[in-house]
Amino acid sequence: MISGFCAAWVGIINTAQLNAAHPASGDGWEMNAIAATVLGGTSMAGGSGTIIGTIVGAFVIGVINDGMTMCGVSEFWQKVIRGLVIILAVVIDQTQRNLQAKMALQARNESK
Question: 66 — phi, psi (to 5°)?
Fold first, then answer.
């Protein structure tokens, strides 16, 4: 219900900004949503994230998008860079999980 409410609210805001309603006006926004949640600390392998982390991730993605637009980066390369940011965040997350698992296993072995 909350997700539907938020989607409707964003649709109303988008329509007000564009002074027109078009069903394809939000295409591509899902990439930004995924990037924001992954940068905010939510694992792609499952698990939980925080609202604050997702908000911080959204601000980071917004700054990256605005910076690339100001620098005149084409839309194609903007998508490529966003994809690379997501891949980098997933790699860092997986590396961190593996390191934590190794440390827990080592601590378990030392206590025996």
Answer: -65, -40
- Per-residue pLDDT of 41-85, as tens digits, reads 887 777 777 889 889 989 988 999 899 999 999 989 998 998 898
Contacts of 55 (CB under 8 A, 6+ apart): 40
Amino acid of residue 100: Q
Given CA atoms 75, 81, 85, 91 in this order, what sign does their dihedral have?
A: positive
3-class SS at 66? helix
Spatial neighbors of 39 by CB under 8 A, at least 6 apart, are: 56, 57, 60, 61, 85, 89
Task: Decide if 94 contacts 77 (C-beta within 8 A).
Answer: no
Two tokens, residue 70: 């100001």
Q: Give the largest Cα separation in the chain, rounded.
A: 68
pLDDT in tens, 24-50: 777 778 888 888 888 888 877 777 778
**Are 21 and 15 contacting, i.e. CB atoms less than 8 angstroms apart?**
yes
Q: Output the pTM of the full model.
A: 0.69
